[in-house]
Amino acid sequence: MSVDIRPAMIALLPRLRSFARALARAPEAADDLVQATCEKALRSVDSWAPDTRLDSWMFRIMQNHWIDMRRAERPQAGLDEPAALKLSRDDGTRIAEARLTLADVGEVIDRMPEDQRAVLVLVCVEELSYREAAEALDVPIGTVMSRLARARRTLIDTLALEDRSAGRRSGEAT
Amino acid sequence: MSTKVSDEMLMAFVDGELDPETAAQIEQAVAQDPLLARRAEAFRASRGAAREAFAGIRRGSVPSRLIEAVMRNGSSAKPSFVRRPEFIRAALPLAASLALVAGIGGYVLGQAGAPAHPDLLGGAALAEAVGATFSGEQRTARFAGREVAVRGLATYPVEEGVCRMFEAVPAQSEPIRGIACQFAEQWHVEVAVAFPPDDGLTPAAEGASEVLDAYLDRRGAGPALSPEEETEALRE
Lengths: 174, 236
What we know:
The complex is a heterodimer.
Chain A: H1 6-24, H2 27-43, H3 54-72, H4 74-80, H5 89-97, H6 102-110, H7 114-125, H8 130-137, H9 141-158, H10 161-170
Helix pairs in contact in A: 1-2, 1-3, 1-7, 2-3, 3-8, 7-9, 8-9
Chain B: H1 7-14, H2 20-32, H3 34-59, H4 64-77, E1 99-103, E2 106-110, H5 118-121, H6 124-132, E3 138-143, E4 146-158, E5 161-170, E6 176-183, E7 186-194, H7 204-219, H8 227-233
Parallel strand pairs in B: 2-7
Antiparallel strand pairs in B: 1-2, 3-4, 4-5, 5-6, 6-7
Helix pairs in contact in B: 1-3, 2-3, 4-7
């Protein structure tokens, strides 16, 4: 091992934590996931090509590790997803009227399917390009786009972003 | 009219992911269609909403156990830290809450926008100055043409030698706190953290202390030495 990647890895921790939060949702579980990811990455550091992006490589390790873990815990997985996952459009409007707080936005994101949360965070929070996100998640770029568009459509509808921008533009009260 | 442009297409447009030709077409369509413009605006806003929802995590302090996990793991395979100046700020996202520079034998962590004196840590001079400054003492040294006030805060016994917590305040710059250790007669700066003055707003100082404490724990440091013990420990 000629290059010590630990400093770069420590610098990445805030970003790894937000991606982990998108996958695991619960803060403790997310930090456990970050820790497991770092440990795994350090064990397999030889498979990282130094001229490639460390962040994409680690996001990918995290995603794979998460999938492996979920697979191992299959019997309990059903409990994790509440039945009332889908916010109907009516619910969304009601939430918007009640003025969404940041916590609520987080909740809306938490209720999205996992694959949508993952791509939403990689692109909108971590600012990866579509191509980079596709590489990190190991899916075609078209899949990134369709998941991302669905996730953002959910945000737009539940937060009533379209109505708000209409109100702003035309001066109407919303 | 606006229904002709799919959500995906419009989203790729606001994200700047379209080729110039297609982007120009969408731009024109958006300019001519208020409904489409509204949708485009909503997609732009959705990015901001997602970002805000995660801003707390991105800016929050990283639990020391994670920093620990990284440092501990690599060190079993490779016992020493990086021994050459290596600046990795380029790898940092703009909004990163941790700015980190690896100096000689150490890490510098701080808030974004506060690069923590790489030049200062890039030399063995700081390590030597810390080594000569006993706990409670203060001295002024010059590194890279800059005056730096160095203060010894406490000294701890560790298995391989001693570690000293220090504060270094470069002239007209933010203070840093760190730990330098003497192993085999040689002083090295092992960890350094930007240590902003307490302005009552940022918990940065708290996070900084956590990092230093985590380092000492990892080294298995004992309680701080008394002045007599310190003199004794460093006699040879």
